[in-house]
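dude i think i finally got it to work??
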Amino acid sequence: MRENAVVFLKEKPVYFSAHPTRDLALFLIRAEQEPDISTRGRLLRHAVNEWPQELDAHILLYKFLFFHGRHLEAERAVLAAMSEAARQGGFSRNYRRLKPQTADWLENPSMSRVYLFSLKALGVVRLRRGRVADAERVLTKLLELDPQDEIGGRNFLDIATSFHEQE
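look at this
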């Protein structure tokens, strides 16, 4: 085993980077194992500030915020993740400007695929915040970029459109 290899205690850690830096990986493991919610949140924010180019820190932060009902903060964290993925991927951070030919959206691993996962997260967060029309626009764009629904946005779009049927 390489000297700087990270040994994960879990069977399969969920990271988007193929090779997170050793320091970041160890820090994120520490944050995930932190029992105090406030401290865990501070650690995840620190990870984003310390390693702003690492999408794993961004993603873990917005997931944490979402699952703890801090939806406005989660939305901001998702937008930050999308901006960083777009910067690294060389395309616009504004999803409205993106087209299927802008990038190889489903290449794995790629910044474009991470962007799509974050776009889905943005739609879900906006749904949770009651911003149904905004969520519907985001999720419609997601399916334009991912017509085979590999990222899994179709069900959330169906939920958003079902609100129109209830009116």
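Residues 1-14 have pLDDT under 50 and may be disordered.
im so relieved honestly
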